[in-house]
Request: fold
Amino acid sequence: MLGSGTALATTLIIAAFATGLAPRTSRAETFAYIGNADSNDISVFRLDPATGEMAPVQTAAFPGVEKPGSSTPLAISPDHRVLIAGVRSQPYLAVSFAIDPKSGQLSPIGSGPLADSMANIAFDRSGKFLFSASYGGNKVAINPVQANGAVAAPAQVIPTGPNAHAFLPAPDNRFVFATNLGSDQVLSFKFDATTGALTANEAGTVKTPEKSGPRHFIFHPNGKFIYLLHELNADVAVYAYDAEKGTWRETQRTSALPSGLSGKPWAADLHITPNGQFLYASERTSNTLAAFKVDAASGHLTTIGSVPTETQPRGFNIDPSGRYLAAVGELSNGMSLYSIDQANGALTKLKSYAVGKKPNWVEFVTLP
Reply:
């Protein structure tokens, strides 16, 4: 038989649940971060996964930065605690922000020097180093990331062929690859994740067709395939990846161009859903997003189709649930959100949102 105190406590708990006052466990929240070059800031939005609605949370400025650069590349640390933005005006800086795990808001941590105007930045898989690629400076670099999230001076700067555009690690962090748009090749480096040292891996160099302009690449979530987007002809190439040797072997080549394109191809970005089933690429001349279905066994692509999007879609991304895609337009100063059909990968536009001036980069993160 319950004592009077226990009975009273039980009654209060039952009443609390009945009136909706019971304690609630914290729910993960998803946030989008948009780099705006001409505004010199970052737009922060909260995504409602149930409705697809996005709500503005914050506009975070770069402290001490007066002039905007040509673009604003962003990178989020593997532990989701730090966001780093690359400033492409002199003095070239990596500006670090702490990400509030509850609100998603950004608070400045500090700035560190970059080796040049960097078109692309990315963390290594440990979060201890920052890779960067300079399109105009024809180089790649690596900066240590300090314990507080601020970037230290470059530890290594490596000359490349013309127009280095992306510099990203393999899933196991043993190799790093750099696209060289102007010399139509992808360079390979061995990476010591303990010391941060990079050494050339000439066996892993990839040659692409002349004047194709390799720009951005991504790994399939299973680590077995790589997808490479070419800026100058809008080809999407599929490669089988040898993780032991760090080598690429092309197995398919297709196009991100919509039918009937009038004008010179100008492809920009590509991303794959977290489950590896669908891949998307943006093309700036036609202002479209191309969708592809991914074969699980071979990694090969089957075209789904293209949809219109924001004007000059330099950047877009997919939320961690794989249900939504957000694309921004450098000339529209807007962001469009699409739902991704989980059965066939088709995109359906939900709503457009105003962001800053010349938006060009999108990152998603689910917190905590």
